[in-house]
Amino acid sequence: MRVDKMTLFADLGYEPHPGQLLIHNSTARRRIAACGVRFGKTTCAAYECIAECLAPRERGVGWIVAPTFDLADRVFEEVERIALKKLSRFVKQYLRSEKRLVFTNLGGGTTEFRAKSADNPVSLLGEGLDFLVVDEAARLPPRVWQSHLAQRLIDRKGWALLISTPHGRGWLYDMYRMGQGANRNPNYESWNLPSWTNPRLDREEIRREKLTMPERIFAQEYGAKFMEGSGAVFRHVRERATGQWEDPVYREEYFAGLDLAKVDDFSVLVIMDRRGKVVYVDRFHRISWDAQAARVADATSYYNHARIMCDVTGLGDPVKELLEKHNCYVTPFPFTQRSKAQLIDNLTMLLDQKAVVLPRPQLWPEGIEELEAYEYSMSEQGNIRSGAPSGMHDDCVIAVALAAYNMSRPRPNVRFAVIRRGR
């Protein structure tokens, strides 16, 4: 049995706008909504979950899943707010620490609703689902949907709502296409829902935003278009990934980039020669600063005392001093919004100019994957920024960008630098 959604929403004081109504009125088993920023997808998803949590059934189970817990929590917190404020008599159990709500539904049975993160796919194993909402689905690896989520819907014949701002043309785009056209799969329904389909947004403000950003980014973030490679910062990555590891050459000059781990990230050391070829990479974590410094010193010493450019943001001069105690030649690089943009822009330019040679993907899979995934995105305040997608690292990106910046910047006379340091 289904709940009369419009009556329920009216009782709860929720008036969906026309774009949201398209989603609420669908009964397809697979619903894919390509949404622009500020469309109202969190609110839409939350009320869809509320309606299902109250639907009469003996025992029901539903999830909200997103690439990270923070993203999943946005919808869960909205459901939590509505349930505790307006539907408290139906809340049978509430465990905030487990991100779990149990409802007594309108049939007298129980329905459990939980928030899950896709960054640990093992946590997605379990029983069948009656309903599933996936937020920012375009940023999930395809294997998560195929191997961990779609299977949960089979035995209960459950439905899924996948809501996302598009991100390239990956697996979600393929599902979107299945819900389009006269010959669409009857189990699928999909919509393109630009930001301006939300009548509560100021269209003049959106127009002004359009003037401040690249056309591709606006089309994706506001127009909800699936743009081929639109969010990618670095192009031609695989084309430039033709190199291999190399031993040092006598009298060759080498340049290193070092991104130091802060908590759970990796420390990454990248060394390239003066022609822009990456010849050595080391990636490690969860070892002491002394051990890291010794490891970096051994590698840079082997490569003719390669000059190091090091990210010291949040770590300070003690790290630089520790490396210098190991006779490393270190240039600190404090990160600011402006300096990071310069760093990334420089690497983008060098890749476009074919002035950097990366190791083959078989030799450096994590680095190539990070470079390809590194993206432009829109902040909640409407600012364009670059970085790794949620749940991914960018340590390799920063390290190779530092090495490239080190290699391409004006530098002092090499002979003078060697004499100064007593070499």
Query: At CATH's second level, what is the architecture of the largest domain?
Result: 3-Layer(aba) Sandwich
CATH domain fold name of the largest domain: Rossmann fold
Mean pLDDT across residues: 88
Count of runs of 4 or more consecutive helical residues: 15
Strand content: 15-25%
Low-confidence stretches: 413-423
CATH class category name of the largest domain: Alpha Beta
If you compute it from the alpha carbons, what radius of gyration comes out, rounded to the nearest whole angstrom? 26 Å
Q: End-to-end distance, in Å?
A: 81 Å
Structural class assignment: alpha/beta
The main pleated sheet reads as: 8 strands, mixed
Principal-axes geometry comes out as elongated
Tell me how many strands there are: 17
Question: Helical amount among residues, as a percent range?
Answer: 25-40%
The domain tally reads 2
What brief labels describe this structure?
eight-stranded mixed β-sheet, about 425 residues, Nucleotidyltransferase, domain 5, alpha/beta, 15 helices, five-stranded mixed β-sheet, Rossmann fold
Walk me through the structure.
- With 423 residues, this protein is α/β, with parallel strands linked by helices.
- The chain folds into two domains: 5-221, 3-Layer(aba) Sandwich (Rossmann fold); 237-420, Nucleotidyltransferase, domain 5, CATH 3.30.420.
- It contains 15 helices and 17 strands.
- The protein has an eight-stranded mixed beta sheet, with helices on both faces. A five-stranded mixed beta sheet has the order 12-11-10-13-14.
- Helix 3 crosses helix 4 (69-86) and helix 12 (337-352) crosses helix 14 (395-408).
- Residues 413-423 have low confidence and may be disordered.
